[in-house]
C-alpha cells in the first residue's frame, strides 16, 4: 500500500486516507492538524569514509509521527530512492498499527538514502553507526525504538545498538528490536505474525458462531507467515485444502489442492526456503496442481492472502465462491478498494491487515519489554501473551464495528485514530 | 632415466614366462640397472683422473652381466687400452664403439671366457647389448664434459708456484688436441675469426689473412653475392693462432672464449634438431634428453644461443604465434622442457604441438613460478600434474582406423553434421589407438596413479582464437578407478570422445561463421589430475572457479572494469565455467572485495550455489547433486568447510561458531565468507590476475581449484572479448541530427551495427499508467515483439530497471526469455527530483544479459552533454498497432519504430567504448560495419575471431539482382513480378551468401521449365563471378522461389515476405533492359 515508490506521493495518500477517517469520526480540528503531520522530523548528513579512502555523505531520516501513547516504534530502511515523504507515510501507518493492538507505543520510521548493493559491509557499518551518532540524543528505549526494515538486518541493528550503548555508557538492549536471540532478541518472533492472524480468525469464527473444526481454508503464499498460520489453524481443527506458492523457474504461481486437507509437514518437506513448493513432488504426493489464481476460487470458508499486495481486486473478487465468509489479511494491502467495496456488500467478514498481521509488531514490543526488564520469557510465554494481546485487540475492534455498524476495516482505522487522538487530548496537547 | 624405461617395456613385453623365469629376468634387469648407475656415478665423480675412471669402469661392468664370474672387459680410448686382469680374446664377445661428437674415439669390449648356452646374441642377452651401448654412450658423452671439467683441475695446477702466468690456455689447448682434434681445429678457426674481427695487425702477412680486406670490399656492394671463402684448411697452425691471441687478449678472455665455443659446439646437435623442420617431436625429445645427460646448464651457454634454443623449443612444442614465443622465451628455461618431454605422448614421427590450452597454462605456470620468488602471496600456488598428447595424435588415430571420411564432414550442411555426430562419436569410441599412443597413454596412467583425471581438449584453433573456442570442445572427467585395464579403457574412451568433438556441430558451425573451416585443426589433449580430495564417497576440490582480469559484469557502478571478477563454486569448477541458468556461482570483484553482488539475507540465500558438481567414486561418474544433500551427507569431512559455508540463523547469516557444525540440523549456505576474511585467497587471485595481465600484455581468464591445502591454477588464456565486443571507435564528427542518443556512464565495449527496429517504452507515459494490469501488459507486449521482430536486429529502450523483481513501476516487467532476441537493452534513468532511479546493476537479470551477449547501456538523459532524441522515438510512425492489434491500446506507451522506413533507408548503429566511457546511437548507412577503418584485431595482432566484414557483397548482389530482373522477359516466361529479399536486400550478405529472389509465376509448365533453366544459367554465371571476386565456391548463387497466384492471394509460403511489416521483400522492375518490341 503505502510502500510503493513510484510517481505518486505516498504521504499525500496517507494524509488523504486520514482526512477521510477524521471527517467520518468528526475529529476536532486541533487533533486533525496534529495527526495529519509528523510530530518531529529529523533529516541529517552521515559522512562516511569509504573503503577506497574517499568520503561520501549519506542522507538520513527519522520521523516520529506521534508518541502520545508511548515511545515511537518503527523500522529503519536502507533504500536508494528513499524520500522523506515515504518515511512520513510509513511512520503514520506505524502509529495506527501500534494503537490498534493497544500497545503503549507511538509510530516512527527512519531511513538512509543508500543502496547496500553498492556498499561493503564495513561501509554499511559506518552508515549505521553514523546514523546513531546523529540522533542518539533523540532516541532510546524511552523515546523512540527502531527495528529492521527494507534492506536492514539484525546485523545492522547490533551495530546500531553497539554505537548507542557506547555513546550512553550503558547496556540498553531496549534501544532497538529485531536482535538475534541471545543478543536480546525474543523467542516466538518467527511464529508471531502467522499465529497472530489465526488468533483473529479464531475470534472471528467464535463471533460468527462457526466451529473452527468445521471450516475449510485456502491460503495464498507459503512463506513464514502462511506456514505458521496453517500450523496453528490446523491445531485448532481447521482444514486447509489449498495453498498457492510462487514458482521461480516458471515465473508464475501454482495452487496446490488436496480436498481432504493438505499435510503441512509433507509440504514443508518439498518446499525450498523461499516458500516455493516443488511442483512435481507435490503432484506425486497427490496434490492437484492448479494455476496460482485458483487459490481464491476454492469452496472454502476462509481465505488467507499471505503473500502479495492487490491480489483481491476488481477482476478476481467475482471469482470468490459464495461459501467464503472470512478473509484474513495476512499480507499488507492484499485487497484493492474496488474489491473491498464488493466484499463489504456481500457481507464477507474481512479482518483488515492493520489488525490481522499486527502479531509482528506486538512481538517487537515484547522484545523491548523483556530487554527493559532484563528478564527473558520462554517461547510459550511469549505466544500466550501474544494470544491475549491479539484477542483483546480483535474484541476491541469488533465491538466498535458491531456498536457503530461499521465495516471491520473502517472500525480498525477508527479505533486506532481515536485512541491516539484521545491520548493527545488527555495530555492536553489539543 | 630413459634407460629404466627400456627395461620396463621389456618386462611387459614377455607375458608368458614361468614365475622363475620372470624372477630371474627381474634380477638380471636389476643388475643391469645397478651397473648403469655405477657407471654413471664413476663418470660423474669430480676428483678422479680420467685414467682412474676408465679403470674403475672395468670393475663395475661385469656384475651387470648374467655370467659375472666369467666376464672380462677391455676398454680402448685415446690410444690407451685398459683391461681386466683375466681378459683374453674369445669368440664370445660383445663390441661397442665409444663416440665423441659422432666420431669414433674408442671401444668397449666384453667377453665371456667360457662357453655358455646361446641367447639373443651369442651367449649374451638382448638387454646386455643395450646395457653395453648405454655405457659406451655415457662414456662418450661424459668425456666431452670432462674436457670442460678439466678447467677446474687445471686451475688448481696453475696456482702451483713456479708455473708461468699466462700459459693456462696452453694446457687447455693441449688437452683439447689430444681429446678431440677436430674440435680443437674448429675452435682455432673461431679464434682466428675473432682476432680478425678485433683487427689484430700481427695477422697481416700471414697466409690467408689478407681476407679481412676482401671481406670488407665484398660487403660493400650489397647486391653482389659474396665470394665463397674456403676454410677447409686452417691457414695457420693452431699454436700460432693462440700465440698471437695470447699477445692480444687477456688470459681470462681466451679461456672464456674456448669454453663458450666448446659448449656451443656440443650444442650443435640440439640446435640442428630444433631448427630442422623435418625433425619430429621424438627427435627433439631425444635431443633434449641427450642435452640433459651432457649435464649442461643453461646459464653456461651464450645468451644468444639460449634465446635461439628457447624460441625454437617454444615454437615446436607450443605455438607459432609470434607474441606467444616472444613472451614465453623470456620465461622458460631449457630445463623446463626436460620435464615437459617426459610427460608427452606422441607418435614417433609426430610434428604436432601441445595445443592452445596447454600453451596457456604452461606460460602461466612459468610466469607465476618466476613471481613466486619475490611475492609471498603467490607462494602457495600449485599446478596439477599433467600429461600431454601431441595434437597430431588425432590424425594418426584417424589413419590407424581408416576413418578418413570424417574430414569432409565439416563442409556438410550443419543439420547433416548434427545428425551424424552421434554416429561419429560411436565410431571413434570403438576405434583402436595406434600402438605408440597406447603405450604413451599407458605410461601416463601409470605415472598419474589412480587419482581422478580430467581429459581436456587443447586444439590448435583454441590457440589461434583464444577463449572464443572454449567450451566448444569436450572436457571429460574420469574417476580413474578399477583395474589397470578398466582405467586404461576409460581413459582411451575419453580421449576418443574428445577427438570426436572436432567433428561436432557446434565448433563446426562456429568455424563456418568465422571462415575458419579451412584451418587445419588438430586436437592436443591434456590429461590433468583432478585437484581435490576424497570426501565421503565423493572426490572434489573444496572450491574452484574462474577469474577474469576484466570485470564485464559490474553489479555496482563503484566497481571498475579492472577490478576483475571471480566466479566460484563448491566442488568442481564446471558450474562456474559454464552458464548454468538455474544456479548462481558466488561473484567477487578482487579489486573491491567489500562490494558483494548479494547484500540482503534474502539475496544471499536466493543467489547462492544450490547444486554442485563432483565425482562419485562409487558409481565412478561425474554427478551434480544438491549442495544441501552433500553437506548433510559428508559436509564435515570437506576441507575448510567452516571457511566455505555460513549458517542461517533466523534472518541472519553468520560464520559458523566454534561448536560442531551439524548439517542435519543447521541450515547452511555457501558464501566463502571465512575464506575471504581469514585467508589470502582474494589477494592471491588479484595478484595472479595482475601478474599474468602484465606479463602477457593482455587481460586473462583463469581457472582455479583448491584441495584444502593449496590453490591450483588449472588454465589460463587471454580473456577474449565477447563476440562483437571489442571497444568501438567513436567518430567525433557526427552531425547532431544523426545522433539518437549518447551515454557517458557505465559503458561497456561493443558495437551493434545494423539495428532496423527500436522498441521504445515511453518513460513518461509508462509512469502515468494507472493499474498494475496495464503495467504488466507492457511487459507482455514486449515479449510478443521479441518473437516477432528480426532477431538481434532490434533494440529495447525503456525506463528504469527492466525485469525487476521488486516494484513494477521501477521498470518494465519482463523475464529474460521475454527479451532474449534483442541485441541491446537501453535503460533510461530520468531524474525524479534529486533521485536517479536505480538501473539493472546487480540484478541477476543483468547477469542473464551478459551471459547471453546482449549489450546493455544505461542512459542518463539529465546528465550534461548527454543526448536523447525523444522526438524521433515519439513522433515516428508506430508499427505496434499493425504488428500486434491486440495491444493497439498501448500505442502511446510502446512504440515500435522501423528505422530504415522513417530514416530514408538508414539504420541505427550503436557504438560502445568502455575505455572512453562513451556510447553513441546514430543513424548510418547500412553495410560496412566499421565507422572508422580499423580491422578487428586485438592487441599484439593476435587474430580475434571477429564477425566477417560485410564489405560490399550485398551491393554487388543487389546490382546483379536488378540486372537479372531487367533482362527477364515477363511475356516469354509468364512472370508477373519479382522481388529480392534476405541478406541482399538487408545489406547483410556475406561473400558466400545466396541471392534470394521471389518470382510471381503464372505461366505454363513449358514456361516454367524455360524460366528455371534461364535462372540456372544466371545462377551458375553469377557463382563463377562471385568465386573470382571472393574465392567462395558455390554451385549457384541465385536462390529463386516461384510463387503461384494462389500463394500471393493467400499469403502462403514465402509470399508473406512481400508485404511483411518487419522485413519486406524489395520489388524488382522486370524487363527494363530488353529492346522494346
Written overview of the protein:
The complex is a heterodimer of chains A (430) and B (1077). Chain A has 430 residues and is an alpha/beta fold. Chain A has two domains: 40-175, Leucine Dehydrogenase, chain A, domain 1 (Rossmann fold); 189-356, Rossmann fold. Chain A is 43% helix and 18% strand. Chain A contains 14 helices and twelve strands. Chain A has helices at residues 10-24, 29-35, 84-100, 121-135, 154-168, 189-208, 224-235, 264-269, 279-284, 337-346, 353-356, 359-373, 379-404, 408-426, and strands at 40-49, 55-66, 72-79, 106-113, 144-148, 216-220, 239-247, 252-257, 288-291, 302-305, 326-328, 349-351. In chain A, strands 9-8-7-6-10-11-12 form a seven-stranded mixed sheet. In chain A, helix 4 (121-135) packs across helix 5 (154-168). Chain B is α+β, with helices and mostly antiparallel strands and 1077 residues long. Chain B has six domains: 2-150, Beta-Lactamase (2-Layer Sandwich), CATH 3.30.450; 168-343, no CATH class; 344-530, Dna Ligase, domain 1 (2-Layer Sandwich), CATH 3.30.1490; 537-720, D-amino Acid Aminotransferase, Chain A, domain 1 (2-Layer Sandwich), CATH 3.30.470.20; 736-941; 953-1067, Beta Polymerase, domain 2 (2-Layer Sandwich). In chain B, the strands form eight sheets. Chain B has a five-stranded mixed sheet. A five-stranded antiparallel sheet of chain B has the order 14-13-12-20-21. In chain B, strands 27-26-25-24-28 form a five-stranded mixed sheet. In chain B, helix 1 (2-13) packs antiparallel against helix 2, helix 2 (19-44) runs parallel beside helix 4 and helix 6 crosses helix 9. Chain B is globular and about 115 Å long. Chain B starts with a helix and ends in a 10-residue tail after the last strand. Classes of the chains: A alpha/beta (430), B alpha+beta (1077). At the A-B interface, helix 4 of A face helix 22 of B.
